[in-house]
Design brief:
With 226 residues, the protein is mainly α. 36% of the residues are buried. α4 (97-111) runs parallel beside α6 (152-168) and α7 runs antiparallel to α8 (206-225). The chain has helices at 4-25, 29-53, 58-84, 97-111, 124-144, 152-168, 187-203, 206-225; strands at 118-120, 172-174. The chain contains eight helices and two strands.
């Protein structure tokens, strides 16, 4: 019986992604983002429970990737599509390449043995949270911003292409996993965590997008130093 518990949690992640996609197409991006966050919580716990119960399995690994592509690939693509849809007819469909690149990133992750303590490329949950929080927190502002507003579709699509590149790139990105609690070796992680608090307090939901961008920048800088 216990071997089915992690897969059940993974399925809850998948269902959360389906619900997030529904709300995105209904035009309620806030609820869509909420269910992406709920899916991320399930995604965190399914692996942890599998390790605690010692019931990790190949089918669980494949199911996890499928669920992640729905929740962190298709759902955020639907949010961006719905955001751009009133602006132009055909261009918004391009954003669904993000779902395809998310699937490719997840397939690479399953085969890449280098990602035990860190990531190679942008994790799909981080990408999903970036787009969800950007549209929910700063969507109205971007439509009226002097430079971004008149070129909104091109700016968003340019960002989508950058996201797709980051998802499958060979850029090392740190994970918030600690072998020890000392400053040495964990300096980048502590700097990141300490700066997240004021960003969220100042910017609210849109601060999540800034935090993801900051995470990518810190990862690039720290990898260059190494």
């Amino acid at each position: 019986m216990k071997k089915h518990i992690p897969n059940t949690i993974t399925c809850l992640n998948l269902i959360s992604g389906c619900i997030a996609t529904y709300w995105a197409f209904m035009g309620d991006c806030r609820l869509a983002l909420l269910f992406i966050v709920i899916g991320a919580a399930f995604d965190f716990f399914d692996g942890m429970v599998a390790r605690l119960l010692h019931v990790s399995s190949p089918i669980g690994k494949e199911l996890d990737s499928l669920a992640d592509d729905i929740t962190f690939g298709f759902a955020p693509s639907a949010i961006v599509y719905e955001y751009l849809r009133p602006e132009t007819e055909l261009l918004p469909f391009i954003v669904f390449i993000m779902a395809a690149f998310s699937a490719l990133r997840l397939a690479k992750f399953n085969l890449d043995e280098r990602q035990a303590l860190g990531f190679i490329g942008l994790p799909t949950p981080a990408n999903a949270l970036f787009w969800g929080s950007l549209i929910v927190g700063a969507g109205d502002w971007m439509k009226t911003a002097p430079v971004i507003g008149p070129n909104l579709s091109l700016v968003i699509l340019g960002g989508v292409f950058i996201s797709c590149y980051l998802l499958v790139s060979e850029i090392p990105m740190f994970a918030l996993k600690f072998k020890t609690w000392g400053w040495k070796g964990n300096d980048v992680k502590y700097v990141f965590l300490l700066t997240c608090i004021p960003i969220l307090l100042l910017l609210g939901i849109s601060g999540l997008a800034v935090i993801i961008a900051w995470y990518v920048l810190l990862s690039i800088v720290s990898s260059k130093k190494k």
